[in-house]
Design brief:
heterodimer; A: alpha+beta; Dipeptide-binding Protein, domain 1; Dipeptide-binding Protein, domain 3; 9-stranded mixed beta sheet; 4-stranded antiparallel beta sheet; 20 strands; B: mainly alpha; MetI-like fold; 3 domains; 13 helices; about 80% helix; globular; SBP_5_dom (chain A); SBP_5 (chain A); Peptide/nickel transport system substrate-binding protein (chain A)
Chain lengths: ~500, ~325
């Protein structure tokens, strides 16, 4: 008995020692950040760019231009550029001191290759549509790249800064998914699938060397597990903690910085505009007035996030506050419903993707709608697989609720066969005008007008912009507070003191 | 019938079951909503881009061609290439098994080590406080889901006492200590519901056997209570316990999916979950087939163990 007790004690001690070993001692040249969704390959120019870009964009791969932390387009591998008077010719002057991480120099020929690869017939770039205005790419000399456009596209420069258009080298392009080769300050050393990507500073970088020697992306999907990893010191940065109720515990903790920044994701309740009763403008407006958006934000994301009145979020430089258009007014909503021929309300199917923000929002919307006699039958829709097929492709739905994360994506309301089934000639014309804008002022005016049309017409109920709830260790500096693009840019991150 | 023939027959039977299982798995997964290419490309993809990716992944080939191709690959050991990771599925699965196998093994051992003594003690002293405690444990263990136990363990032993890491897996090349300690909390979370069920089964089985004639005879011949319990009752109660252990393997696997997720362990459960949500169908197919193989092998193993434990079953064949 005493012997077995001794063995038991010994085993326990061994386990404890193994557990307390200082594996995660603080290294002032290393940072580990959390990436919730493991990317499907590390190449942001194929497939869906979001998760891949969140690991490798700016860290490993760079573009002709970049989008900075304020959402503005800035030079990167192109020093500068000129746009012709008619808006149809873009001339880029490229840096001549850049090489890829495999030693191949970057020049206009590689840039031409990259862009033609995006536009090619066999392209699997999910963002291809954003670059289709380009009709010709010419490498005039090593540092001059000229793009010819078939139509004006005032957003093109922005999209050239997006993760989907990072520069790749012909020899390594096909293997970038597993062994990425870019021009950025960090190179990928190892991808332990299901667990982490290990990166380290690359000594051949053309720009200023980063302060960090190693950067690790850890894949932790569960928000509870993210918070636990932060508290246990396993990770240093969670760029966007996906559980607002867990965020509060970090705001009061002196060991952490907790910053509720502006995100690019707008939560909207899209309606099938081709189907009664949602084809009736009065019904859509009544539903909008039935929703008290500040209460919704308080309940869904602990008060973080901003209510919106149209499709843009406050993170967008062209954002206009249109929440006053249809404020919470159940009396007026009820009157409008009666006018539209539904004095006793109606019932509809509410297909809600299996995402926490969507499920919570849907339940609160259901309560709001019931106040004006409208009965929402909530049905969960497995996201992404079932939702994409059922709602997005087949538009077999009455109302749904989704976060739209892509910046500048107001044009979705002008697309044919998009899931809203919204068809408004005035709005389409407005989008054409924006594309043809020759200067920034005209572009801004165009986007403001587009927001106004949607705020009045309500193809979707505009609810709120989701906050970017960043949490990182005290002593870290340079982390992006806002999220104008989905990214975990570590180039400026450093430890202070 | 001679033994080699019986063996051959059961092997052929298993192969037939696996073949049918593979077809059912393939058809079910193919019928599930969600096109892998669409999910990979996101909602802004154009039709021509979708077509290009579908061709690249081989998704444009007819259903039966894809099934037969997969089946042929399974026989030659080539399980195909993951759509999303772009690496061989065989490597992916092998990598993940180095986490999941030790995890489930630890959990099973732990469950047996907890439940057998607890069940026997409860049976030996029915109605006593020990019995009440064992019953409380099994009730709680059955009622509380393992991922919730996992969360509580993280709160207590990772965040409060900092004895174990709250999640993640450093890999076996980081050394035995760190890798082992990363598996301790998840294996406890996985073991407790199993132990709860096994405690109940053990207690019931021991009580039932204790009332049999041969135990009464042994007691009548002067064997002490304790000796009768350990010498005659317990060994003869193991059969239902082994059955239950075998039956629980599928639950253990599905439990591992949740527990691995809570502890962000890169195991086969996380792989299955992720592959399913991203419709990496080729990975899902192979993982589900692997699960089917495991269940069949465990069943065969349980049968063999039966025969050893109960000579009557051997004689009947």
């Amino acid at each position: 008995m005493t012997k077995s007790l001794a063995v038991l004690k010994g085993t326990c001690l061994a386990i404890l020692l193994a557990g307390t070993a200082p594996v995660w001692a603080q290294d002032t040249h290393a940072v580990t950040f959390v990436q919730p969704v493991e990317p499907q390959g590390l190449d942001p120019t194929v497939s869906s760019p979001v998760a891949a870009g969140q690991v490798t964009w700016q860290n490993v791969f760079e573009g002709l231009v970049a989008i900075d932390r304020d959402g503005r387009v800035v030079p990167q591998l192109a020093r500068d550029w000129t746009i012709s008077e008619d808006g149809l010719t873009y001339s880029f002057h490229l840096r001549d001191d850049v090489t890829f991480q495999n030693g191949v120099p970057f020049d206009a020929t590689t840039a031409k290759f990259t862009l033609e690869r995006i536009l090619g017939e066999n392209s699997t770039n999910g963002q291809k549509a954003n670059y289709t205005a380009i009709s010709g790419v010419e490498a005039v000399d090593a540092t001059t790249l000229v793009l010819t456009l078939s139509r004006r596209d005032a957003d093109l420069l922005y999209w050239l800064g997006y993760p989907a258009a990072v520069m790749v080298e012909p020899g390594s392009a096909d293997s970038n998914g597993t062994t990425p080769v870019g021009t950025g300050p960090f190179k990928v050393d190892e991808w332990r699938k299901g667990d982490r990507v290990l990166m380290s500073a690359w000594d051949g970088y053309w720009g200023e060397a980063p302060a960090l020697e190693t950067v690790t992306a850890r894949f932790i999907n569960d928000p509870q597990a993210q918070a636990a990893a932060l508290q246990a010191g396993q990770v240093d940065i969670v760029g966007n903690l996906n559980a607002p109720e867990l965020f509060a515990q970090f705001t009061d903790d002196p060991d952490f910085h907790a910053v509720a920044g502006a995100g690019e994701m707008e939560i909207v309740a899209g309606m099938n505009n081709a189907k009664p009763p949602f084809d009736d403008l009065r019904v859509r407006q009544a539903l909008m007035m039935a929703v008290d958006r500040p209460s919704l934000v308080a309940a869904v994301s602990s008060g973080h996030g901003t209510e919106i009145g149209s499709h843009f979020s406050p993170a967008n430089p062209f954002y206009e506050d249109l929440t006053g258009e249809f404020p919470y007014d159940p009396q007026r909503a009820k009157a409008l419903l009666t006018e539209a021929g539904y004095p006793d309300g109606f019932s509809f199917e509410f297909k809600v993707p299996t995402r926490p923000y969507a499920q919570r929002s849907a339940e609160i919307l259901q309560a709001f709608f019931s106040q004006i006699g409208v009965n929402a039958n909530i049905q969960s829709s497995d996201f992404p697989a079932t939702w994409i097929q059922d709602v997005f492709k087949d538009t077999n739905y009455d109302m749904t609720i989704v976060g739209h994360a892509e910046p500048l994506d107001i044009g979705i309301y002008a697309r044919d066969n998009y899931y809203f089934n919204y068809d408004n000639a005035e709005f389409r014309q407005q989008m054409d005008q924006i594309a043809a804008a020759t200067d920034e002022t005209a572009r801004e005016t165009g986007y403001r007008k587009a927001q106004e049309i949607l705020a009045h017409d309500l193809p979707a109920l505009f609810l709120f912009s989701y906050p970017k709830l960043g949490v990182w260790k005290a002593g870290l500096d340079g982390v992006w507070e806002n999220g104008p693009v989905p990214a975990n840019d570590m180039t400026d991150v450093h430890w202070v003191d | 019938m001679t033994r080699p023939l019986t063996f051959l027959r059961s092997l052929l039977g298993t192969a037939a079951v696996l073949l049918i299982a593979s077809l059912v798995i393939f058809l079910l997964i193919d019928a599930a909503p969600g096109d892998p290419a669409e999910i990979m490309l996101g909602t802004s993809a154009q039709p021509d881009t979708l077509a290009a990716l579908r061709a690249e992944l081989g998704l444009d080939r007819p259903l039966m061609v894809r099934y037969l191709g997969w089946l042929a690959g399974v026989f030659t050991g080539d399980l195909g290439q993951s759509y999303t990771y772009g690496v061989a599925v065989r490597e992916l699965i092998a990598e993940r098994l180095t986490v999941t196998l030790p995890l489930t093994l630890m959990a099973t051992v732990l469950a047996v080590v907890i439940s057998l003594p607890l069940g026997v003690i409860a049976a030996a002293r029915p109605g006593k406080p020990e019995d009440g405690l064992a019953s409380l444990f099994s009730q709680i263990g059955i009622a509380v889901p393992n991922f919730w136990i996992g969360l509580l363990l993280i709160l207590a032993f990772a965040l409060k006492f900092k004895w174990f890491p709250p999640g993640g897996f450093p890999g076996w090349d980081a050394g035995f200590g760190p890798a082992f300690s990363a598996l301790v909390l998840p294996s406890i979370a996985l073991a407790i519901p199993q132990a709860a069920v096994l405690t109940r089964v053990t207690r019931a089985a021991v009580i039932e056997v204790a009332n049999e004639d041969f135990v009464r005879t042994a007691r009548a011949k002067g064997l002490s209570r304790n000796r009768a319990l350990w010498r005659h009752t317990v060994p003869n109660s193991l059969l239902p316990v082994v059955t239950m252990l075998g039956l629980q393997i599928p639950f253990l696997i599905s439990g591992a999916v949740l527990v691995e997720n809570v502890f962000s362990l890169p195991g086969i459960g996380t792989l299955a979950y992720q592959a399913l949500s991203q419709r990496d169908l080729i990975v899902v197919q192979n993982v589900v087939l692997l699960f089917a193989v495991i269940v069949l092998v465990v069943n065969a193993g349980t049968d063999a163990l039966y025969a050893r434990l109960d000579p009557r079953l051997r004689a009947r064949k």
